[in-house]
Specification:
Blueprint lengths: L3 E3 L5 E4 L12 H19 L3 E9 L8 E9 L4 E10 L7 E8 L23 E3 L14 E6 L2 E6 L9 H9 L2 H4 L13 E6 L7 E11 L4 E10 L2 E11 L12
Antiparallel strand pairs: 1-2, 2-4, 3-6, 3-10, 4-5, 5-6, 7-8, 8-9, 9-11, 10-13, 11-12, 12-13
C-alpha cells in the first residue's frame, strides 16, 4: 500500500494514516519523500539523470488532507539538473513544504592511484527489532518501516512505498529524517522538530536497508541544535544527512474543567 494515493487530477495526493507525524500534521520525512519521488518519476523521461541530493524545507504543518504539488525546472541540460517541487493543501495557495532536488547523469572517471575502500556486507536483521511508541491509538510514519539498532547504527527498511514507482533517494529520506532524534543528547525532555532536511548521495543504495550513524548537538540557551549523520546501505557508506533543530517544550496536557 502506498503512503500517498494519487487522486484524479495530476500531482494531487491523499495521504494515508502512515504519513502522519507524532504531533499535528504529516511527518517531514514523508513530505520530503513524496516531493522527491515525483521528481524521480520524471527523471527518466526528461533525461535528468540520477537524483544525488534533496534539500527540503518544512514551511508550516502539512495537514492530513488532500494535497497538490507544483514542479518547477530551475535548470536542466548538460550533466546537472536542478528541480524544485512545492506542496500545497489542495484547496489553498499557501505552501506547506518545498524541496530542491539535484540530479546528475552518471559518468565514469578514471582517477590514477585511487582505490575504493573495501566493503564488508552487514545483515541488519541480526540486530534487535525496535518499536518507537511515540504515538498511541493510531498509525503514523514509523509504522511504515522496520527499525533495528546495533553497533552504533540505526537501520531502517521501508515496508510501504511512498508512491507507486518511487526511486531510491525518496526511500532514504524517511529514515534520514529520524537522524536528529536517534542521537538526542537528552531524551524525552523537549520536542526537537527539524525545519529542514538535506541528504546527499555519492553512490546509489543497494538493497532495502538504510543505515544512519547519527550525531546531534544542542545549544539549549538558544533553543537550537543540529543533527547530522553518515548514511549507509548493507555494503557501506552512501552519503550524508543534516538538518537544523528547533528545541521547544512538549505540549502541556489540557486541564480538566473545575
Amino acid at each position: 500500500m502506498p503512503i500517498f494515493d494519487p487522486l484524479d487530477a495530476p500531482r494531487h495526493w491523499r495521504p494515508s494514516p502512515l504519513a502522519a507525524g507524532p504531533f499535528a500534521g504529516l511527518q517531514g520525512g514523508a513530505i520530503a519523500s513524496l516531493l522527491t519521488a515525483e521528481i524521480e518519476a520524471q527523471a527518466g523521461p526528461r533525461n535528468w539523470g540520477t537524483v544525488i541530493a534533496s534539500a527540503a524545507w518544512f514551511l508550516r504543518p502539512t495537514p492530513m488532507a488532500d494535497l497538490r504539488s507544483e514542479i518547477n525546472v530551475v535548470s536542466e541540460g548538460g550533466r546537472v539538473s536542478v528541480i524544485d517541487n512545492t506542496l500545497y493543501p489542495a484547496t489553498e495557495d499557501a505552501p506547506c513544504a518545498t524541496v530542491r532536488v539535484t540530479l546528475s547523469r552518471e559518468r565514469a572517471v578514471e582517477v590514477p592511484g585511487f582505490v575504493e575502500a573495501g566493503r564488508t556486507a552487514v545483515d541488519p536483521t541480526k540486530y534487535k527489532l525496535r518499536t518507537l511508541h511515540l504515538v498511541a491509538g493510531r498509525q503514523w510514519f514509523m509504522d511504515a518501516m522496520e527499525a533495528r539498532f546495533g553497533d552504533g547504527v540505526a537501520w531502517f527498511r521501508m515496508n510501504h512505498e511512498i508512491i507507486a514507482g518511487a526511486g531510491p533517494l525518496s526511500s532514504i529520506l524517511g529514515p534520514a529524517d529520524w537522524t536528529h532524534g536517534i542521537a538526542r543528547p537528552v531524551q524525552n525532555v523537549v520536542a526537537d522538530p527539524n525545519p529542514n532536511l538535506s541528504v546527499q548521495l555519492f553512490r546509489q543504495p543497494r538493497g532495502e536497508w538504510v543505515g544512519v550513524r547519527a550525531e546531534a548537538r544542542w545549544a539549549p540557551a538558544a533553543g537550537l541544535g543540529v543533527g547530522s549523520g553518515t548514511l549507509l546501505d548493507v555494503e557501506g557508506e552512501i552519503g550524508r544527512v543534516s538538518m537544523s533543530v528547533v528545541l521547544v517544550p512538549f505540549p502541556k496536557p489540557a486541564m480538566a474543567a473545575g
